[in-house]
Amino acid sequence: MLKRMMSLLLTAGMLFCMGSTHVAAAEASQVAGSEALMRSSASTKTEQPAFRVYLSPSPQYYNLYPDGKTEEDYMRQIANWMAQYLHEYGIETIIAPSSAQVPASEWGTMLQERAKQAVQNNCTLYLSIHSNAAPEALSGQYNGCFIYYQTNHPMSGLWAQIVKNNFIYPEADKIKLANNQTLTEMAYPEMPALLVQTAFHDYPRDADWIMHNTQRIAANLSYSIAQYRKEYYGVPIQEITNPNLQIPFL
Fold first, then answer.
1. Which segment of 37-46, 50-59, 80-89, 149-158 scores lowest on mean pLDDT?
2. Residue 221, Cα to own-chain centre: how many angstroms?
3. What is the arithmetic mean of pLDDT over 220-227?
4. Most buried of 13, 90, 196, 245, CB within 10 angstroms?
5. What gap in Å lies between CA 94 and CA 128, rounded to an integer?
């Protein structure tokens, strides 16, 4: 009897959880700290609910591209392509409704509603898709990609690192991780969230790259989501069988 009690105590004593208390400034330590949390979390799950991603294209219809289309037009193109790619990977999507009729003064409330919709629909991840622009006085002087992640959510940082490693922006050294918890789509989603500023639409080469690569950008971001699911939920990445979607994206 005594041996049995000691065995039970030893077994109970081996139960523990690990996790980092914050996302470190250095990318290496941020990934190392949160990776342990994610792997521990994944190993304790026996059944996973549907893996569902909320896609939030930029509502900024006043940001014009050289061809007269808007930031919202192109980011929604990316979101629509992503829905097709994620379907191939067995991942469900919800795309936020168009904001074309929503005045800019109400965007904060609208984005909060998108975060609520993601919770109500049991979404696993939240992805906001944007292009960037420099301040007016410096318009056309900056280029690159910024991937914003939540500083209070380790899994967001890990997902951001996967996106950074995979992303196909032409200048790899200008793909940067960033954080700003004052952004509505960083502060309000309850699940891991990213805001990807794909490139600068006021920088001519960046704008041209976006306009001619919406499908590749979508395929690439979708693959990073599938990789995230594989690494931390153990779900293999399925092959893309639709010939219309079989393009280079890495």
1. 37-46
2. 8
3. 98
4. 196
5. 12
Mean pLDDT across the chain, nearest whole number?
85
State how far the alpha carbon of 167 is from the alpha carbons of 45, 185, 210, 228, 229, in Å: 29, 21, 13, 14, 17
What is the sign of the dihedral through the CA atoms of 231, 240, 168 and 180?
negative
> Mean of the pLDDT values across residues 140-152?
97
| Confidence class for position 242, pLDDT limits 50, 70, 90 | very high
**Tokens describing residue 26:** 């250095």
| Residue 156: how many other CB atoms lie within 10 Å | 24
The whole-number average pLDDT for the span 140-156 is 97
Placement of tokens 């342990």 in the chain: 36
The owner of tokens 């792997």 is: 39
What 3 state SS string does the chain have? CHHHHHHHHHHHHCCCCCCCCCCCCCHHHHHHHHHHHHHHHHHHCCCCCCCEEEEEECCCCCCECCCCCEHHHHHHHHHHHHHHHHHHCCCEEEECCCCCCCCHHHHHHHHHHHHHHHHHCCCCEEEEEEEECCCHHHCCCCCCEEEEECCCCHHHHHHHHHHHHHCCCCCHHHEEEECCCCCHHHHCCCCCEEEEEEEECCCHHHHHHHHCCHHHHHHHHHHHHHHHHHHHHCCCCCCCCCHHHCCCCC
State how far the Cα of 193 lies from the Cα of 115, in Å rounded to an integer. Answer: 10
Residue 101 confidence (pLDDT): 77
